[in-house]
Amino acid sequence: MEKGTLGGLNGGIYRPFTDVDLRKVDGAITRLLSEVGIKVANKRAFELFKAKGIETDEEKKLVYIPRGLLEDCIASTPSELILYGRGNPDYNIHVGGTRVHFGSGGTALNIIDLETGQKRPSTLKDVQNVSKLMDYLDNAHFQVIPVFPNDLPIEKVDINRFFAAINNTNKHVQGGIYTASGTKEVVEMCSMIAGGLEALQKEPWVSFITCMISPLEIDQTYGDLMMICAESGLPLSIPAEPLTGATGPITVAGNVANVCAESLAGLCLAQIVNKGTPVLMACTSASTDLRTMGYVSGSVEEGLINACAAQMAQYYELPFYGTAGQSDSKILDAQAGYEGAITNLLVGMAGGNFIHDALGLLEFCLTASYEKYVMDNEILGEVMRVLKGVTVTEETLAVDVTAEVGPGGNFLQEDHTFDHMREEHFVPKIADRKPREKWEATGKKDTFTRCHEIVLEVLETHKAEPVDEEVVKAIRTKFKNFVQ
After folding, report:
1. What's the pTM?
2. Contact 321, 237 (CB under 8 A)
């Protein structure tokens, strides 16, 4: 497997569960799947489970997944995989173990307009622009398509949303899909770009998300989408989103057990449809505001839940898709910074492999902010510095150079300082470290303004390697829903 250069530092240094806890949660997951059961409202999926000879309830549409079937399906799922960059091996990411990668997510229905500063419905142009920005940002290791093109009818969303993202970044692109026909169009379109489905399966630079319904259900729509994606042989993330006290238990441990059981049930369906399908065990679980029981996305408990779920994925030796980085603030302010930073740090330190939503999202994930993508990129640089850790050698302990400098001296002109300063210290691009006088003299720019200026420059000057124009012409001819 050809590894790239983006991310991939090891987490796993934060372990909220003990080894005893992991076994207890595993036992709870087993009970949920085998005793409580999963409602499978999708008729074809129900019949596929039933054909495995397991216990079912026809009237309630419940399937009871025994431990043996669960273990077989986990064993047939790759424990690690390469999610490829399109045409650039430096952008390949090696997912599995405790290797950490961060990227965008959504799908936000709104965006903060760059000119007016007001919230408005996002469009296909925003999909293109955010993708270009994600291609530029060095601590964004992949892109989960983060905004929805409200200017398109639903039958045209899938193929155009994916193409807009793919054509504006060479990093790996993952996204949710909305219709069965649209999913098939995306698979066919990407196969055309790759030179055939087999070539795309060999080096998958695109992957999909299909959701479980909390609590404990595979519904008709997502069941269809899940099976179509599994049949394609392309990588698939299967998240669930139990909300504490609403669609999942109020307790962190109970919520983790539920979300893992739900994702693993989807994994089982994918393996029954196509044994060996690359599946990321996934968690998008969040918490509720205890005062209103409304959905919130920036709570510290969300970070805890996703960190715990990452540990469970490591327990099962499965690659993991997790959630962190969002804020419930409506603007780019202190809340937007500290909420995103805390959860990104928690899930990164826990060793989440494919951490989406890590950049750009405000207002309960309903709204994206161009400027927040830039600010979060800097936060992620600091998180990656934490994951890099501290190297302790004779050289870094610096006893010899300290002896040479001596008491009362300074290290400014020492070769040791120049040799190590860049690798030891994260250098921010956004944070202002100038004295107040210089800051005032250069315009007294706040964080928002500095981020805004970078966004405008990137959108004006940065360009990813686009899809070959001859292939684009063939796509235009083949798909009546293609509008670009």
Report:
1. 0.97
2. yes
Structure tokens, 411: 């290290």
CATH number belonging to domain 9-16+75-388: 3.20.20.480
Per the CB < 8 A criterion, the answer to whether 76 and 271 are in contact is yes
DSSP annotation of 141 reads -
Distances (CA, A) of 58 to 50, 63, 64: 10, 9, 11
Q: Is the Cβ–Cβ distance between 14 and 350 less than 8 Å?
A: yes
Q: What is the pLDDT of residues 172-197, one digit of tens each?
A: 999 999 999 999 999 999 999 999 99
Separation CA 322–CA 298 (nearest Å): 14
Query: Prior bond to 107 cis, omega within 30?
Result: yes
Length of the chain: 484
In this structure, which amino acid lies at residue 455? V
Rg (CA), the chain: 23
- What CA–CA distance (Å, rounded) separates 414 from 420? 10
Beta strands in 286-419 (DSSP E): 287-288, 295-296, 320-323, 354-356, 361-362, 367-368
Does the pLDDT at position 2 exceed 60? no
* 226: nearest Cα among 196, 191, 234, 321: 234
Q: Which two three-digit tokens encode residue 347?
A: 């899930």
**Cα gap 126→483, rounded to integer Å:** 15
| Cβ–Cβ under 8 Å, residues 273 and 230 | yes
Q: How confident is the model at residue 1 (pLDDT cuts 50, 70, 90)?
A: very low
The phi-psi region of residue 337 (left if phi > 0; otherwise alpha if psi is between -120 and 50; otherwise beta) is alpha
Instruction: For the chain, give the percent of residues with pLDDT over 70.
Output: 99
The first and second tokens of residue 119, run together, are 């919230």
> Residue 168: what residue type?
N
Integer Cα distance of 406 and 328 in angstroms: 51
Q: State both tokens at 467.
A: 């899809």
Phi, psi of 178 (to 5 degrees): -120, -25
Closest CA to 172 of 368, 55, 288, 4: 4
| Domain chopping of the chain, boundaries | 9-16+75-388, 394-424
The one-character DSSP state at 90 is: G
Helices (H) and strands (E) in the chain, counts: 18, 21
